[in-house]
Structures are given as structure tokens and as C-alpha cells.
Here is the input.
Amino acid sequence: MPFTDAGTLFRPLAIKSLELKNRIVMAPMTRTFAPNGVPNEANAAYYRRRAEGQVGLILSEGTVIDRPASRNDPNIPFFHGDPALAGWKGVIDAVHSVGGKMGPQLWHTGAARYTEWEPEATVESPSGLDAPDAPRGEAMSEEAIADSVAAFAKAAADAKRLGFDTVEIHGAHGYLIDQFFWSGTNLRTDRYGGATIKERSRFAAEIVAAVREAVGGAFPIILRISQWKQQDFSVRLAETPALMTDWLLPLVEAGVDVLHCSQRRFWDPEFPEIDGENGLNCAGWAKKLTGAATISVGSVGLDSDFTNALADKGSRNMSIDRLIERMERDEFDLIAVGRALISDPNWAAKIEGNDQQSLKGFDAGTLAELI
Here is the structure.
């Protein structure tokens, strides 16, 4: 059976200086194919193929800021230093050469970083915790916090200088910024802690404000957020719309243009007790409460959620009709696609052309190379 008309996914959208031909975003996905942290021609070709495949906006894999504890694998790319920035210049030039748009995702892994490959490295976080009651590393001093804020701003300025079209700050999934949001990992008693989510959002708000000052008013800033954490899928930072407003509205007021709302399944309602089992998802509520543009993400193009899909071969696109229904009512503005685009760089073009016959499902074997 053909999909419902997918035309709603291919409407243009402008957000400040960013002009997109459609609503499909390539989600950031860690690939660990940047030797010693430096992107090369293979990375550039990987992203160029998604632009050729009609992805409207590409967000890079997580790329780390200039902090000694920021990355968790030797082949995760830096977004600092001349060799890495030269590599990223090659990536954005390749994407632009075929008419694509792209932003880097700026990242600090915090206490969630792996250390097997670098056992003596510093691990820093709000309170020296990777999860509630799970000590790891050291609590950040105010000087370390200030240096991290500055590092995010410097990376964003470099992104604009290199010619990227936007920038995303990674504030989700239990990494550093998210560890400040989470009451279980932020036990600080200074101005970066507190009993409320609004108080614990200060670190993120300072990063956003510094990035806004570094890139100017017209350059779009995206912030990725999530309720769930890799440490605990059941965590919810905001149990009510009022708490979600307390969390997200100050970040939008600090300079965020787009909230990238990560959930495991985009079709799950965020507050079903309010609007039912078919109610607004996380991105829908974030848009309603803050007025910001939003990106939804979570198992698009898969017939199971992303954690199960990692083991699947040939996962199909049973979720597309549900996606189109939500996009038609403008519940959110953009949809990010992850693993489906790892296996099939032409996924977006095939959806646009209703080419189900050649549409590939996610194959976990393709994680071993840059297709």
C-alpha cells in the first residue's frame, strides 16, 4: 500500500537565515569514523550523499568542544583545533556543493564518557555523578563551568565562520548539559543547582546566551533536549506542562530558535493524562508552551523503537503515515530521521517519490562503515 501523500514533509521552511527546502532533518548520530578526531574526505562524502538524497537539514554527529574531558572515543570528531576545523570546512563545502544545509552538533559527554581508551582522563560533571547514587569523576568548579560555556561559544563562532548554516547544542541523553538539568545528578548548592528545573537550567541558559552573542542575532541556534536519559529511560525532567515551561521557556528567551525534542518513539504522547493517547508529543508540547520551532525525532522509518531496532535487519517504514498525520496538523515543524538514513542515504528522496520498492530498512550491519 502506498503512503499517504507525503507532500507535507516537503514544504519549505525559513528560520532566521536558514532556508530549508523541506522538513526532513538528518539526526545527529555518533559514527566514530574521524581518525584522531579529525574529519576527512570519507566523512565529507558521507554527509554529501545525504544532501544529494534530498535531506533538508543535516545535523552532524556529536562533535566535541575544547575541553579535555569532552569526548568518549578517540574517533569522535573535535570541533576545535586547526586540523579538525579544516576537516569540517571540507565537510560543509561538500554539502553546499550539492545544495545541502548543515549544522554541527556541539557536545560535551560529562560523566557519561567512556574512559577505557583514556583511563587517566578527567571526568567532569555537575556533582561528580553519572547517575543518581553513581559517583564518577569530579564536580566542576565555577571556573570549569565558565571555561565550558566559553568553549561552546567559541565552537559556535567557528561553525559560523566556516560557513555552516546553523548550530545545535547537545543538551540531551544524560550528557553534561542534561546532567545539570537532572535533579539526580545535579546536587549543587551554588547558583548552578537548586530544587527546581528552572534553577538547574542556568548552565544551559548561560551557554545559549554566550552562543547567541558569538553568532549574532540572525544565525539559528538549535538545542537538543530529552526527558529520558541513557542512564535511565524512565526519567522525566518535567512531569507537567507547567514544569516543561519552567525548563524550556528560559532557554528560548536566552536565544534558542529551535528545540530538538528527542523521544524514543515520536508517536508517544507526552502528557496523555491531559490530551489522550493521540495527544501532542514532546515536540508538540514544547512548541505550544514556548512558541519556538521544534524538531521531533524518535524511531522514524522503523517498525520498533530505536533500542530494539539496533538489532533489526530490514526494519520498514510503518510509522510514516502517523508522521504525516502529525505534520499535517503542524504539531511540530521538522522531523529528524536517524538510523533509516544510516542505511539509505536516499531515504528522503524515496519518501518524496513514494518509492517503497527500493526503500531500504535499517540494517545494523551498516553501522560498521560510512555508506
In short: The first strand starts at residue 13 and ends at 15. Residues 303-318 have pLDDT under 50 and may be disordered.
